[in-house]
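sry for the spam today, last one i promise. struct tokens for design, 603 residues
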């Protein structure tokens, strides 16, 4: 029997969780002497590195003083809430990582609440105490208040606290005395986190997450709850609907460092990966053939937002991408369902080449779009829509808990913007020179809100939101009020034409960019759409006018990120996404056809 500790790490986006895990790996001698490969090993995906967020939960283990410590990384963003709850089931304790300046944030609260309710023992780590304006003692009190609010037990409230700087590689119990390494924290894990209980008897294991390999297919990952599992043994798979299916374990792996190591047997308490099971879902139980007993299944968050995905049929289709047909896009979406749990895909009724894809929020869906784009896919997506349900005969919509932290002078602007979007203020408190305001707001109201509050607060806002529940429909919300400027004909945009049109609105394109008829090239200053000719060149005659030629002075175009573009488009517009470009366009490209359609709808 080996000595094991299973620990989950909980932190808000960008509080230094991935960096801390890197330093723990260094302490566990996972790299060869003199080799420091600790550059964010857990955020190995390009997208995770660019955005600085953890999207997929991962498992790593280190050995320290003869004890195997399984570290389970949890995503900090509530759009990936589907990942969090399942992951915590594998742990016996958790490290709550908090920034010494910002303190516990709303999304930390979301994950911590789940952890405390399962009964995990917390260790608090206050990170970034090397920052000039940090306030570790105050933050420690805030954490204690938060634990009390979340109904922590007396045992959970007697948590140890470590201070340090993960970036500089030290942790100690006194924030004013820097240590040389993070061993104090590792000793604390061994001392305070209970070892998993060894339960004898028939084997039982809950599948809590998935891995995927192109060679062996889907791999079940979970923690052995009771008994032991062996390679080649027959097991029963207890399905959600109560049925049992007999299966065989082909291969058994445990996590060693960042890799998986093949083993013959895994005892209760350790985390393992099983290859060879078919048709399993997360939350189902692997149990003994003679007397199968299922563990209670895990509930997975329902999607709250949907988007129309369709093949690219713009005049520029097939220029950049490798995969452009409906077969390619459909296969890719079906493949994503294998490992992305909170996602749903269904074909749009009566139309080929269109799918309704539902997920947890704009970020969740945009990560999928960005990943597909990098793999060489071309597609078009429609405006994000929230999923409306009918509950007890009442039309209901998803409501989110929104927290905004801004400097005092911008507080009234924020309240005004959120209440216009049907948000109700639930609390407001001042901390130093900043104000923390909490709202309940429909998910529809959050679409497009981030860009606006960042502009209004000159980039000072910290905004976070998490799904709360479904409530009766709150009424219409006014979205973007400005119309679009639409290209009249296909061709190359000229500086001469853009210069003459600049007083009509702001442009999204550069001179010399190719455009097509029906493409949205800018935002009009008024509410109506305006068709403009950006491909008009200057006529040159051999007779010069007496006025001197003025140089065209072009204002730089507005550049959107993928999320901003998704939040910006209107109902009658698509966002065309290819590996090299993102363009907004009207669904109906032809102007006369658009007018005809609008007339028939109005009548």
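last one done:
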């Amino acid at each position: 029997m080996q000595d094991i500790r299973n620990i989950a790490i909980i932190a808000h986006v960008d509080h230094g969780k991935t960096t801390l895990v890197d330093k723990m790996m260094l302490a566990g001698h996972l790299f060869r002497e003199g080799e420091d490969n600790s550059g964010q090993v857990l955020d190995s995906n390009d997208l995770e590195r660019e955005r600085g967020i953890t999207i997929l939960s991962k498992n790593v283990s280190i050995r320290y003083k003869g004890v195997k410590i399984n570290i389970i990384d949890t995503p900090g963003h509530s759009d990936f809430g589907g990942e969090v709850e399942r992951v915590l089931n594998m742990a016996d304790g958790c490290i709550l990582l908090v920034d010494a300046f910002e303190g516990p944030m709303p999304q930390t609260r979301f994950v911590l609440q789940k952890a405390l309710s399962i009964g995990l023992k917390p260790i608090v780590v206050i990170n970034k105490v090397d920052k000039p304006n940090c306030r570790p003692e105050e933050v420690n009190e805030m954490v204690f208040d938060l634990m009390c609010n979340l109904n922590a037990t007396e045992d959970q409230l007697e948590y140890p606290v470590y201070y340090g700087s993960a970036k500089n590689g030290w942790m100690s119990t006194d924030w004013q005395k820097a240590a040389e390494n993070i061993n104090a924290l590792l000793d604390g894990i061994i001392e305070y986190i209970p070892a998993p209980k060894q339960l004898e008897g028939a084997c039982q294991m809950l599948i809590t997450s998935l891995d995927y390999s192109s060679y062996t297919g889907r791999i079940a990952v979970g923690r052995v709850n009771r008994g032991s599992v062996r390679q080649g043994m027959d097991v029963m798979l207890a399905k959600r609907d109560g049925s049992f299916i007999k299966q065989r374990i082909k291969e058994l792996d445990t996590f060693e460092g960042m890799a998986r190591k093949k083993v013959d047997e895994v005892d209760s308490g350790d985390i393992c990966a099983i290859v060879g099971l078919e048709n399993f879902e997360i939350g189902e139980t692997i149990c003994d053939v003679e007397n199968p007993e299922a563990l209670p299944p895990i509930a997975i968050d329902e999607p709250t937002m949907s988007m129309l995905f369709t093949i690219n049929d713009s005049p520029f289709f097939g220029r950049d991408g490798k995969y452009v047909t409906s077969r390619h896009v459909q296969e890719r979406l079906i493949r994503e369902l294998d490992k992305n749990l909170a996602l749903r895909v269904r074909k749009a009724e009566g139309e080929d080449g269109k799918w309704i894809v539902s997920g947890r929020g704009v970020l969740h869906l945009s990560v999928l779009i960005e990943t597909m784009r990098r793999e060489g896919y071309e597609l078009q997506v429609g405006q994000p829509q929230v999923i409306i349900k009918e509950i007890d005969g009442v039309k209901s919509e998803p409501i989110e808990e929104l927290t905004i932290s801004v400097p005092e002078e911008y507080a009234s602007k924020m309240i005004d913007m959120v209440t216009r979007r049907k948000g109700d203020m639930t609390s407001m408190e001042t901390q130093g020179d900043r104000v923390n305001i909490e709202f309940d707001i429909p998910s529809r109201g959050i679409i497009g809100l981030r860009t606006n509050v960042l502009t209004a607060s000159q980039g000072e806002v910290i905004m976070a939101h998490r799904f709360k529940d479904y409530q009766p429909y709150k009424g219409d919300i006014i979205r973007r009020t400005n119309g679009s400027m639409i290209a009249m004909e296909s061709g190359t945009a000229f500086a001469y034409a853009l210069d003459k049109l600049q007083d009509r609105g702001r442009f999204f394109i550069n001179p010399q960019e190719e455009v097509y008829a029906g493409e949205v090239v800018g935002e009009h200053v008024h509410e109506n759409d305006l068709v403009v000719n950006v491909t008009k060149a200057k006529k040159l005659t051999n007779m010069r006018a007496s006025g001197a030629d003025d140089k065209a002075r072009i204002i730089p175009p507005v550049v959107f990120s993928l999320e901003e573009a998704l939040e910006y488009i209107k109902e009658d517009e698509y966002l065309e996404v290819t590996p090299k470009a993102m363009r907004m366009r009207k669904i109906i490209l032809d102007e006369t056809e658009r007018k005809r359609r609008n007339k028939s709808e109005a009548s």
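Residues 421 and 446 are 8 Å apart (CA to CA). ok im logging off now
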